[in-house]
Amino acid sequence: MGTALVTGASAGLGLEFAWQLATARHDVVLVARDEGRLARLAGQLEAAAGIHAEVLAADLTDRADVERVAERLRSDERPVGLLVNNAGLGLNQHFVSGDLAAEDRALELMVRTVMALSHAAAGAMVRRERGAILNVGSVAGLIASGTYSAHKAWVRVFTEALAVELKGTGVTATVVAPGFTRTEFHERGRIDTAHYPAVGWLDAEDVVAAALADVRRGVVLSTPSLRYKAASALLRLAPRSAVRTFGGYRRALLDEALEAPAPDA
User: Fold this and answer.
1) Where does residue 134 fall: left (phi above 0), alpha (psi -120 to 50 degrees), or beta otherwise?
2) Is the Cα dihedral 257, 258, 259, 264 positive or negative?
């Protein structure tokens, strides 16, 4: 039994990671902005699984808060053996006409924070000669659909490069690239999913179980479900012009969602 630190642990995939790790007898460090929600979750995990759950409230778009989490990763007290960089957000806007401040927050959260926390964790883990880093990417990183695709493409390539650098140290790096997954993510980002194909949806429980199994095996690129493995292979082989066409389809869906009246209008 070891300690795992999960960012974005209060909802979505992060919540599922927290539960599966706790039931597998890992102590957990829960990181998110909502301290009250984290405290309730910690109590539930401790009561249900008999593990120690630590609450670390932090806004991961704030560099001072990110440094507090990084210090926890460097600590030798209850050392963290698994980092799950899960926190993320969806921007329901176009880049050109959108809010640049929102773009900055997304970039900070899904790129710089992943880099900073991976750096802190890797340094401590290499010193101990054991550990694992799991970064949550997305199949969206293979297409051309807004800055979210760019962020997740960065996460994938960064994790692969990190895995190369860590080879032989006893520490591994894995990036999981799920497709559409049933969580609070789309609702919190006010993203209309009505036009998304039903066959494309995955369950959070299955995504997390597959990701953790791949971490245990030292897999670098983890893609849950056969259909997304096939889709990812096609996207890697397809001409980039075709990939951009698919991105245009996603843009059309966003246009329709943004033009639709608000539910209470």
Assistant:
1) beta
2) positive
Residue of 152, 167, 228, 249 marked active site: 152
What is the pLDDT at residue 54?
Answer: 98
Coil, strand or helix: which one is 138?
coil
Tell me whether residue 152 is one of the annotated catalytic residues: yes
User: What pLDDT, on a 0 to 100 scale, did the predictor assign at position 193?
Assistant: 46
Pairing of strands 221-222, 171-176: parallel
CB neighbour class for 117 (10 Å; exposed up to 12, middle 13-18, buried from 19) = buried
Dihedral over Cα of 181, 120, 23, 58: its sign: negative
Q: How far apart are CA 118 and CA 73, in angstroms?
A: 9
The 8-class DSSP code of residue 262 comes to: P
Residue 7 DSSP label: E
Query: Hunting for tokens 């001409």 — which residue is that?
Result: 239
pTM of the model: 0.84
Q: What's the rounded mean pLDDT across residues 141-159?
A: 90
- Residue 133's alpha-carbon distances to 82, 86, 114, 130, 136, in angstroms, are 6, 11, 10, 11, 10
Known catalytic residue at 148: yes
